[in-house]
Write a structure and sequence with these properties.
Residues 248-378 form the Acyl-CoA dehydrogenase C-terminal domain. InterPro entries: Acyl-CoA_DH_C (IPR013107), Acyl-CoA_Oxase/DH_mid-dom_sf (IPR046373), AcylCo_DH-like_C (IPR036250), AcylCoA_DH/ox_N (IPR013786), AcylCoA_DH/ox_N_sf (IPR037069), AcylCoA_DH/oxidase_NM_dom_sf (IPR009100). By secondary structure, the protein is α+β, with helices and mostly antiparallel strands. 48% of the residues lie in helices and 15% in strands.
Length: 399
């Protein structure tokens, strides 16, 4: 993308349809590839990349239509993230987190929606699991805690924090479910927290996923929400897992980019020992065909499971155990398969793949290993889904 084209992206109004958002994401891929090394070196998204995501409508992708948003389906959101990941993985990761603004708005009272998410292109960040403590006080909560993995915290405009609620020093039960832990998500501005620069990592280095902390921050009741109490209807707010459904786009896009890179590389490579061109090498042919096969299978599982779940939610049906676990297992499989593909291609290319300034495979390999450590890609997902499939109750609110 030329400077002139980039200026056009930054100055134009954000697109308002899924088709336009997806088209502009595809057009932005070359620019993101050019910026990938700088994004990683800076350990955060630079201002021009954040501006591109904003102007391309990425942060508004999940905003409901009744608020004037495009309300992309979970499948379209996944495709959007997948497309961005073919350009730069850290950018896609931040986009995936940033567009949660549209989903979180569906759980807040209207006054809070206007205060925090009145601008449809608001980037969001934050760790929602109840790592913090929210002591109930008149009118709201006194919040203290230290949260990790604030992806996009270096550029976000809203920073959320998951907390366990206490009353008079004792844990409060959930008023909806009766669970012993009352989990609420606190919504505030990033300036109200101390951002702690801890993000020195193996991969996803450009995501700016810093820690953040606060002591005795007052959060009004209306600036908090529970995933148990949606205030909007529809598939994006029917179940809490809406924030997770699009995550598979990151590993799928990364694997796609890696395969395409090695296919292009094959036209210029010759085996040193045999003198065989890579395009004629059975070893290379088999490796690339295997990678394509594995990616196609993983991608099909992600999109078919999302489509079945979405159709059920659109009808207003309660999803079945099989439907709930299918999306979680497909997501887990996508992360695992993508890491395997990138690792195999890294080995195939050999010594030249280890240089950061010569090969994107080095970055993709590190990204693959880091993203695989996310909770949705851990082996515990197999235990949880297996428990549900055998008639048990899930310990996770997400499936």
């Amino acid at each position: 993308m030329t400077i002139t084209e980039q200026r056009h992206f930054e100055e134009s109004e954000a697109p308002g349809t899924a088709e336009a958002i997806l088209r502009q994401a595809r057009e932005a891929v070359p620019f993101l590839r050019e910026r990938a090394a700088d994004i990683e070196a800076g350990r955060r998204l630079p201002e021009d990349v954040v501006a591109l995501l904003r102007r391309n409508g990425v942060f508004r992708a999940a905003v409901s239509k009744d608020r004037g948003g495009p309300e992309l389906t979970s499948m379209q959101q996944t495709e959007l993230i997948e497309t961005l990941a073919t350009g730069d993985v850290s950018t896609a990761w931040c986009a995936m987190i940033g567009m949660d603004s549209g989903i979180y708005a569906g759980y807040l009272e209207e006054a809070a929606v206007q205060e925090f998410y009145g601008d449809l292109d608001t980037p969001n960040s934050g760790w929602i699991h109840p790592q913090g403590r929210a002591e109930r006080v008149p009118g709201g909560y006194r919040v203290s805690g230290h949260w990790r993995f604030g992806s996009g915290s270096t550029h976000c405009e809203v920073l959320v924090a998951g907390c366990q609620v206490f009353r008079d020093g004792a844990p409060e039960t959930d008023p909806v479910t009766g669970d012993p832990v009352h989990w609420r998500v606190m919504v505030a501005r990033p300036r109200q927290y101390e951002i702690v620069d801890t993000w020195y990592t193996t991969g996803l280095a450009g995501s700016g996923s810093c820690d953040y902390k606060v002591t005795d921050l007052f959060v009004p009741e209306e600036h908090s929400f529970s995933f148990r109490v949606p205030r909007r209807t529809g598939p994006l707010h029917a179940t809490p897992d809406a924030i997770l459904r699009k995550m598979s786009g990151v590993p799928l896009g990364m694997a796609r980019a890696a395969i395409d890179h090695v296919r292009d590389l094959a036209h210029t490579r010759v085996d040193r020992e045999s003198g065989t061109p890579w395009t004629a090498s059975p070893r290379v042919q088999t490796a690339l065909a295997t990678a394509e096969m594995e990616l196609a299978a993983a991608r099909a599982a992600v999109y078919t499971s999302l489509e079945e779940q979405w159709a059920a939610l659109e009808r207003g049906d309660e999803t079945t155990a099989r439907q709930r676990t299918a999306t979680a297992l497909a997501r887990y499989h996508a992360f695992r398969t993508a890491r395997s593909i990138v690792s195999s291609l890294f080995d195939l290319v050999g010594g030249s793949s280890i240089y950061r300034d010569r090969s994107p495979l080095d970055r993709w390999l590190r990204d693959a290993h880091t993203m695989r450590q996310h909770a949705v890609a851990q082996d515990s997902i197999l235990e949880l889904t297996g428990q549900v499939l055998l008639g048990g109750e899930s310990r996770s609110p997400f499936f």
